[in-house]
Amino acid sequence: MTARQKQPVLGILGGGQLARMLALAAAPLGVNTLVVDSAADACAGQVAPLRLADWSDFAALEKFAAEVDVVTFDFENVPADTAHWLAERVAVFPNPRALAVAQDRLAEKTLFRECGLQTPAFEAVDTREGLDRALAKIDAPSILKTRRLGYDGKGQFRIKQLSDADAAWETLGANAHGLILEAFVPFKRELSVLAVRSRDGDFRVWPLTQNWHTDGVLSMSLAPAPEVGALQSRAEALARTLAEHLDYVGVFALELFVKDGELLGNEMAPRVHNSGHWTIEGAITSQFENHVRAVLGLPLGDTSASGFSAMFNWIGVLPDAAPVLRAIDGHWHDYGKQSRPGRKVGHATVCAQDAKTLAARVGEIARVLKREEQAAPALRALR
Ligand code: AMP
């Protein structure tokens, strides 16, 4: 009998719910995880060993690098310098260049266009006068966003009319990393495409997901997105072009607007993504498992949906779990976090073999939990 090989260790930078779900998916593959975060109560620490360090604590990161076989991210805003430093010591996926592009809305949108993905009109803004120049080109309504460190609608100011420019500048002008002005898109729907690329170039996508946001934060997702027609193959081709251009390894999400039947790129998340949580129960292979497989050089799993799925995001506080647990094919995810306004504290996924049954299950859960408003757009899309 040969001795069992040492189990690989996947290092994860950031210890939030994405790291937690990655760790849970890694375990059955025989992959151990080690998480780094600066917060002692980071919720991934409840399911995986946690090292406390911030992104500039190179002594702690040196020890971490020596303990792991591969490094990946739960958090895309790890400084590019830290990612490069780690990549000199250990395999890092996705590569630091892909991370750097996705960290900067200007670089990201420029790349989208180079790869054939249209975007809302945009202009870089560095000064108050620059904002006026950009507004003269783009006009209102538009959105002023920080180029870096913005997510979930944070670091954004909606310019409804040109006279809002002063207020927008007062709110965001002090940002040291520069700003971007984007045309406001009166989109018909929001979709995301989740894709995965392996170390040897195998590329797969899950069916498109339709998403609804409240105050810039994901509220509900539905998959497969109904009636997408040719948008599925179009999104797939664009995601592949981007992934190959960046030599990307792992899962990523492209957030897309649909306007006049065309796809416009909003942003790219260089990691597993909230709009892909339905894949845990609703796809043959989840985004978390395929990310672990990809970064460790294992074969990828089937990304087909196994039926129809809807995901409720729980923001701020968790509702009562019982109505979801009682529902047929209802699945509860508590991230183990303290309640806080605006914080993602959990989600629930409901699955069914057909859209009509899914609508009935989602409608019943929404009614009992008094979440009718949250579920209404998804229920309309299911009819
Ligand atoms: P973001 O943080 O850029 O993903 O924005 C969060 C949400 O704000 C998006 O999912 C959209 O619902 C909305 N949003 C962002 N940018 C635009 C835009 N240019 N036009 C219309 N809505 C937008």
Structural notes for this entry:
Pfam families: ATP-grasp (PF02222), PurK_C (PF17769), RS_preATP-grasp-like (PF22660). Its EC number is 6.3.4.18. Homodimer. It catalyses: 5-amino-1-(5-phospho-beta-D-ribosyl)imidazole + hydrogencarbonate + ATP = 5-carboxyamino-1-(5-phospho-D-ribosyl)imidazole + ADP + phosphate + 2 H(+). The protein has 383 residues and is an alpha+beta fold. It folds into 3 domains: 9-92, Rossmann fold (3-Layer(aba) Sandwich); 121-183, ATP-grasp fold, A domain (Dna Ligase, domain 1), CATH 3.30.1490.20; 189-382, D-amino Acid Aminotransferase, Chain A, domain 1 (2-Layer Sandwich). The protein has helices at residues 17-26, 58-67, 80-87, 96-103, 105-114, 128-138, 165-172, 231-246, 279-282, 287-295, 322-326, 355-368, 372-382, and strands spanning 9-13, 32-37, 50-52, 70-73, 91-92, 122-125, 142-146, 156-159, 179-183, 189-197, 203-205, 209-214, 217-223, 250-259, 262-269, 308-315, 330-334, 344-352. Strands 10, 11, 12, 13, 14, 15, 16, 17 and 18 form a 9-stranded antiparallel sheet that branches. Strands 3-2-1-4-5 form a 5-stranded parallel sheet, with helices on both faces. A 4-stranded antiparallel sheet has the order 6-9-7-8, sandwiched between helices. The longest helix is centred in the middle third of the chain and has 16 residues, at 231-246. It is globular. The mean pLDDT is 95. Bound molecules: adenosine monophosphate. Adenosine monophosphate is lined by residues 120, 143, 150-153, 182, 184-185, 190, 213, 216, 255, 266-267.
